[in-house]
Amino acid sequence: MISTLLANKNKKVNRRDFLKVSSLGTTGLMLSMYIPVLGCGNDNPSAAFTPNVYLEINEKGDVTIIAHRSDMGQGVRTSLPMIVAEELEADWSRVSIRQAIGNEKYGDQNTDGSYSIRMFYEPMRKAGATARMLLEKAASEQWNAPLSECKAQNHLVVHDPSGKKLSFGELALPASKLSIPDNYVTEPKLKNPKDFKYIGSETQMLDLQDIVTGKAIYGIDASTENAKVAVIMRCPVVGGKARSFNYTEARKINGVLEVFEIEGAGIPPQLNKPLGGIVVVANNTWAAMKGRDALSVTWDFGPNADYDSVQHQDALIKELGKKGTARREHGMVKRTFDNSNNKIIETTYRAPYYAHGTIEPPCATSKIENGKCHIWAPTQHPQFARDAVADALGMEKNDVIVNVTLLGGGFGRKSKPDYVVEAAVIAKETGHPIRLLWTREDDVHHDFYHAISAQNIKVAINKNNKVVGWYHKTAFPSIGATSDASVIEPTDAEMGLGAAGLPYDIPALCLESLPAQSSTRIGWVRSVSNIHHVFAIGSMVDAIALARNMDPAENLLDLLGTDRSLQFEDVKAEAVWNYGEKLEDFPFETARLRKVIEEVVKKTDWGKSLPKGRAQGIFAHRSFLTYVACVVEVEVDSSGNITIPEVHYAVDCGVVVNRDRVVSQFEGGAIFATSLALNSEITYKNGRVQQNNFDGYQMARMPQSPQNIYVHIMESDEKPTGVGEPPVPPFIPALCNAIFKATGQRVTQLPVDLNN
């Protein structure tokens, strides 16, 4: 199974089946929204789930909305309820949330791919609108008044002619007894966007008070009565296993209860199975860790024992010299590059492995009781976790209850449920409730990493100074290899993440992939293949501007050509990867990309005079259906130290639900991208990760982080799109382009090292 980014396709809502009403006995109104969508990991792409998302109004008038997506700081537990409350005409102060367990009835719960709002914006609006209409109908029947005269307003239904009012609480029970009119289901009356009071506002996260006061429950906080602590000694080489171990010394540690081995998947390592290793169970964390330190394990390191990431990347560079597999192609490519009248520029780019680096490492609590397994975990994908646990324990999936806590960061790491399965397996083996803990070192050593990569881009410029040829080769191990060792080339989706969707009007173009073996666990990290693809493409586009003697922003606009809707008939696949959506539903409009470029140029006083060592860089990119232009201003001192005084984003993400969260995601995305560009790198030697903690795998510190981040949101009535991942891709080349302008050094390898 590959992530939602690589496998999910959405099925449109059947309006007639969209809403059904069921009674909550005598307590109030509950709406059950039937939203047929395909879920991540569904092996049969024609089979749809029949999930439920619940809205409840009790007899007191309190509105409860079930949060069926995972919140890792992006605020989805606030943004989705805002949509319902808007159409419901609810008083926001009367709205609360309850987190859903992992279950198909809630629809697609995999909180990956920046598509929570995109997928559920319309269904949530319709749910709120239908509930409002039922409340209005209940009031009209109670007053024996025309329905047209009864309007919901801020948690009341008001009869305008008489001034009568009924609260939502007073109407909840009678509304729950109504049969739903067919037209309510097919065409609920939605509010005019000009009347929105919540959608488009800056709304504080519902969890914020609990988060800042330490009351919020994260995975690391979750526990259950009499829980024991478990840690695992895992083989440092992927695919290795214990040849022998001596647990005598570990058992001598006061508080250590049990020491035993659990099996791993081997090769391929899989997304949903443990790596295996030696488990130490103890009464407390300190005893468990000391017991693990005392283990004497002899490892069989397996076939990856001599893996070296530097040698691997060098081999990928050599591979780029060969003819690859065409993934997109049009025009006379060979003739264009053989033409001696054309100026040819060419560069090879390298990017390393990246870890997720979440502040909260993986952790999970598990209890098996009365034939059921209860899980508490910071998971992005509770259904996948539930199914993986059920498979590992030989249980029915309905006997596994996955309770979702807040996540201390995710970035894609916590949609892989290996750590959840570990906790469940240990609980079954010991008979104890178990709190499984990963240390920071565990996390750095045993992540699902963003793939190492090598790319070569060659560009032809004719005598009229027009770009007439683009030849891009890319080589990186595929995420698919984590599940299937025979996969040695990237999927169509991975190629579509930043490479196959090149929007420029170039007569001759070829995109090729080259084979790359995987020797570790590869997974998806925030913005996935966009990270390395857009670094290379954005850097080359800036080099094109220099070769053409053009301003970089003008060069970008010129490459886009005339405004048009891209169709990508030249892509060598059934369809270009469009983040799980059809192009006709979410078209790629170059006009929208042009407008964000023009906006960021205007907002930044692009091209302004700056002191020596200080410069601006620019790039723009569409990812996760969102159009983003980014200008980064850098300052580089005589020692090569880089600071970032300003970052500006212009963002077109369609309708904005919560401005506060959009701005926050772009601010955080800029800092995340700074880490990738300037600090972060995972390397392997003798099959082992060389970094141990945040001293070796460094994140951006405060002096290095952008000092001022400005987010300019374009007003739009287009369908809403994602904002969690789009900040990352254009930032990195914009930063590198600014560094070149400031220093004259072109960055072709990440992380940036100006002293190398």
Structure commentary:
It contains 19 helices and 30 strands. The two termini are 40 Å apart. The chain is globular. Helices cover 28% and strands 24% of the residues. It is of the alpha+beta class and 756 residues long. It has 3 domains: 2-212, Aldehyde Oxidoreductase, domain 4; 219-303 and 362-437, Aldehyde oxidase/xanthine dehydrogenase, molybdopterin binding domain (Aldehyde Oxidoreductase, domain 4, 2-Layer Sandwich); 309-355 and 448-743, Aldehyde Oxidoreductase, domain 4 (2-Layer Sandwich), CATH 3.30.365.10. The protein has a 7-stranded mixed sheet with strand order 11-12-9-19-16-17-18, sandwiched between helices. A 5-stranded mixed sheet has the order 1-2-3-4-5. Strands 14-22-21-20-15 form a 5-stranded mixed sheet, with helices on both faces.
Q: Which helices and strands occur, and which strands form pairs?
A:
Layout: H1 4-7, E1 19-23, E2 28-34, E3 52-58, E4 63-67, H2 76-88, E5 95-99, H3 116-143, E6 150-153, E7 156-159, E8 164-167, H4 168-176, H5 182-186, H6 208-212, E9 228-233, E10 241-246, H7 248-252, E11 256-262, E12 277-282, H8 285-293, E13 296-300, H9 309-319, E14 325-330, H10 333-338, E15 343-351, E16 363-369, E17 372-377, H11 382-393, E18 400-404, H12 418-430, E19 434-437, H13 440-445, E20 453-461, E21 467-475, H14 492-496, E22 508-514, H15 530-548, H16 552-560, E23 565-566, E24 588-589, H17 590-604, E25 614-623, E26 626-636, E27 642-652, H18 659-678, E28 684-685, E29 688-689, E30 709-713, H19 728-743
Parallel strand pairs: 4-5, 9-19, 17-18, 21-22, 27-30
Antiparallel strand pairs: 1-2, 2-3, 3-4, 6-7, 7-8, 9-12, 10-13, 11-12, 14-22, 15-20, 16-17, 16-19, 20-21, 23-24, 25-26, 26-27, 28-29
